[in-house]
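Posting for a labmate who doesn't have an account.
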Amino acid sequence: MRKKNTQSLRDVLKDYVVENHLDNKLSEIDLINSWERTLGKTVARYTKNIYIRNRILFVETSSAMVRNELMMIREEIRKRLNEEAGREVIDKIHFS
């Protein structure tokens, strides 16, 4: 027998994430995980150590040529990654 005040597990977890301010961090993790899907395997092969701090995406590259190419299209990459995340997660991208 179901009680009247029951909630679905999905709703409970969603409320928990919002109440504990975990939604931003989960969006950041989703954005980082979408890097290869968004930019392709070739670019992902030359990038490593991807992380977000203060709404800035930091990407370390192993090739100067790839870094220069990415720097030229940095704004397009930022827009695509934010679209993939479904919200504005990052404001800038820093390549090193």
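Reply:
Got it, the structure tokens are right above this. The chain is about 55% helix and 20% strand.
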